[in-house]
Amino acid sequence: MSDNNTLRLPAEKLYEHEIKALVENEKGKIPTGWQMSPQSVLTYITGGKAGKTKITPKYIGNKRLVEIAIATLLTDRALLLIGEPGTAKSWLSEHLTAAINGDSTNVVQGTAGTTEEQIRYSWNYAMLIANGPSQDALVKSPVYRAMESGGIARFEEISRCSSEVQDALISILSEKNISVPELNYEQSARKGFSLIATANTRDRGVNEMSAALKRRFNIIVLPTPGDINTEIEIVRKRVDEMAVNLDLEAALPTDEAVAKVVTIFRELRSGMTLDSKEKVKPPSGVISTAEAISLLANSMALAASFGNGKISNEDIAAGLQGAIVKDEEKDKLVWKEYLDNVLKKRGSEWRELYNACKEMNR
């Protein structure tokens, strides 16, 4: 295990006791390259029991989508998770990989600066100049390492990469090998190798994936939480986990506080109040479930460091201001309009939060 000073443990370390319990209590057939059966992977993701150990749900949503994702990774097709920001694409990708082969760290982070070398391989140029091409001088990419070990590589935000870089995956996913012509060598994928990519629907049109590349993937669209109670449950669970991991020395947000934040986010995201009686203008930024989680964790940090250890309406208002007002001119007016036309009319239980938000948005 890593020491307690690690800021963020990978999923296989954070939930090591649950994975160990599932492996020890395995009764199903384990595919080649996997450490547990597909049924146990599903239990790890959606929750249940392994012997006497309680398995906490990692993904709260449509169970059938998780089953399809797991089944895809049993075949020779890669998996592409698509959805709005905050729909747990990366979260699900990491936990699937942690459960299947116990190593979720073979990650390529897609950006405008991602190069083909980061997908295939590069060289230690000091060793290359000194001794020429050799296995020791080869710097293996996360995809290369996953092929070598029969593991799963993760490709985050694939649509942020240029089309040329994306298309470097086509031959890898088709031929299941990486050619190293400098060494007259080919690294073939071992059984168990696969790739999970994620793409943000907000990035459509940035670097659209080619039809040829899309054909190499089984695509699953992850929806936003369907109802407010599901979203509240997700936010509550993740805030609890973050509070432990970050040692936030403040009381957890009350159910009322979580419900208020989620209500505000859902209304601004949908452009309509929950009772469908009034339209509201959405802000320019992303108002996702992940933002709500981050907001409440930050409110806990404020309460612990500069308050009495209990989240106040002022703490929540500060978080709401930062999450919603991304464009100073447009979003400030949108937020003011929402406060005056919706929050102000909600009665006494919303009055203190309204006043705190109004003060922040002056």
Q: Radius of gyration, rounded?
A: 23 Å
Percentage of residues in DSSP E strands? 5-15%
| Number of structurally distinct domains | 2
CATH topology type of the largest domain? Rossmann fold
CATH class of the largest domain: Alpha Beta
* Estimated helix fraction: 40-55%
The CATH superfamily of the largest domain appears as P-loop containing nucleotide triphosphate hydrolases
- How would a textbook summarize the main sheet? 5 strands, parallel
Q: Count the helices. How many? A: 16
Based on secondary structure, the structural category is alpha/beta
The total of beta strands comes to 11
N-C termini distance: 48 Å
Would you kindly provide a written description of the structure presented here, covering whatever features stand out?
With about 350 residues, this protein is α/β, with parallel strands linked by helices. The protein has two domains: about 10-220, Rossmann fold (3-Layer(aba) Sandwich); about 230-360. Helices cover about 45% and strands about 15% of the residues. It contains 16 helices and eleven strands. It has helices at about 10-15, 15-25, 40-45, 65-70, 90-100, 125-130, 140-150, 165, 170-175, 210-215, 230-245, 255-270, 290-305, 315-325, 330-340, 350-360; strands spanning about 50, 55, 80-85, 105-110, 120-125, 140, 150-155, 175-180, 185-190, 195-200, 215-220. The strands form four sheets. Strands 4-7-10-3-11 form a five-stranded parallel β-sheet. The chain has a two-stranded antiparallel sheet with strand order 1-2. Strands 5-6 form a two-stranded antiparallel ribbon. Helix 11 (about 230-245) crosses helix 13. The mean pLDDT is about 90.
